[in-house]
Amino acid sequence: MNFDIVIVGSGQAGFQTAASLRQEGFDGSIAIVGDEPGLPYQRPPLSKTYLKEGVADRLYFRDAGFFETNRILLEDGARVASVNRHDKQVRLEDGRSFGYGHLVLATGARNRRLPIEGIDLDGVVDLRTLADADAFRATLPSVKRLAVIGGGFIGLEIAATARAMGAEVTVLEATDRLMSRVVSPPVSAHFLEAHTAAGIDVRLHTMGSRILGSDGRASGVELQNGDIVAADLVLVAAGVVANAELAEAAGLYVHDGIRVDDVMATEDPDISAIGDCASFPFGHDGLQTRLESVQNAVDQAKCLAKRLTGKPERYAALPWFWSDQGPDKLQIAGLAVGADQYEQHSAGDGKLTVLCFRRDELIGVETVNTPADHMAARKLLASDTPVTLDEARSTGFDVAALFRARKG
Ligand code: FAD
């Protein structure tokens, strides 16, 4: 079978590419090949509301009728094994081959597997897919003691939910603060206090050296200092790695993701890559960056759909993220990597706004329970004229006031 466009991966980015192509008026044939079974779905609720409510219908982007109406062939439960760039074909594991005019790699990422003893024991789990979330939900009500390896977004979201459901929860974080890769020190401190107040035992500077078991089932985590954290379920939430092997085997350049340029093109003009699997040039410095977020997957898909329908534009969308941890909603606008100064503005009631500066220029704003500041920050950061430290100081680092002043 031949298709004008073949999309590998039926996640957020793959689905959005097909939908946006049709919105942009693309009339050719489209196939999505995804190795997960069923309709494409969103992942964020898996570690949030879905754990509590378990309503799968709310996860799906669209029902089966959408794919039929839009003439999008969805080959679910089918894995692409290789790409033959010479013949412009992908070969599926089941032996079929699909020819492509243009190939979109939207293969996402998978959870990092820790190379420690005991990782294969029953009762050691991770969470990336709907199937993982269903398995986790099924065990959660009977879990008395949960150990979470990794104090990042997903580990903390699940820790807060499990704690609210009555489990004793210990979070083991190797670095000196929570979510250290993605948020500022004041936001890390806010969440350390919040999770500790909720009764979660958060241990910083702490690494598990092996997972202990009895009768083939996890019974706890031994720490590097010899201490033991007892647990009947161990969740590994230690980050992800890009699914880039398919591209690498096809001879494309891969370095922490599939390398693309500012229009999401690989070095092969007939192959693009988007979403969690793609490393793209970011910001003024053009530093190759790989982001793991819904915004990034959706906006890169839209950008690509425009190019494939003859309306090319550089990818320059402002990154933004969110994470719901217990009652707290964290929202991040911009990318605060390399920030050298943080200024916080706190309105009380668990509300916090942190402005992140690099070389006197505002590069990111993190807010907790302050959605209006988040929206104002997105507009400020997307503006062509950067906000300076002096300008922000003149409003007492109040994002809403800054935004009003700019609007004049
Ligand atoms: P994916 O969604 O990973 O989709 C890629 C798909 O490709 C997968 O189905 C994969 O199995 C498939 N695939 C890979 N290789 C092949 C192959 N060879 N053949 C066929 N199929 C293949 N982001 C936020 O912005 N906010 C949040 O609150 C948030 N919460 C999250 C919570 C959880 C539990 C998880 C797991 C992620 C969360 N994210 C969140 C991240 C967000 O979901 C991802 O950034 C987004 O899903 C990326 O979309 P993607 O299409 O690039 O990759």
Question: In words, what does this structure look like?
Answer:
There is one protein chain. A hairpin with a 2-residue loop joins strand 21 and strand 22. It contains eleven helices and 25 strands. Strands 1, 2, 3, 4, 5, 6 and 18 form a seven-stranded mixed β-sheet that branches. Strands 8-15-9-10-11 form a five-stranded parallel β-sheet. A five-stranded antiparallel β-sheet has the order 21-22-25-24-23, with helices on both faces. By secondary structure, it is of the alpha/beta class. Helices cover 25% and strands 31% of the residues. The site of flavin-adenine dinucleotide has 36 residues, from helix 1, strand 2, helix 8 and strand 21.
Task: Produce a short descriptive summary.
Helix 1 runs parallel beside helix 8 (294-308) and helix 9 crosses helix 11. The mean pLDDT is 96. The protein has eleven helices and 25 strands.
| N-C termini distance | 58 Å
Nearest-integer average pLDDT: 96
Morphology: globular
Task: List the ions, cofactors and other small molecules found in this model.
Answer: flavin-adenine dinucleotide
Class from secondary-structure proportions: alpha/beta
Record field, number of beta strands: 25
Rg: 22 Å
Helix content: 25-40%
Largest sheet: 7 strands, mixed
Which stretches are poorly predicted, pLDDT < 50 over at least 5 residues? none
How much strand? 25-35%
Number of helices: 11
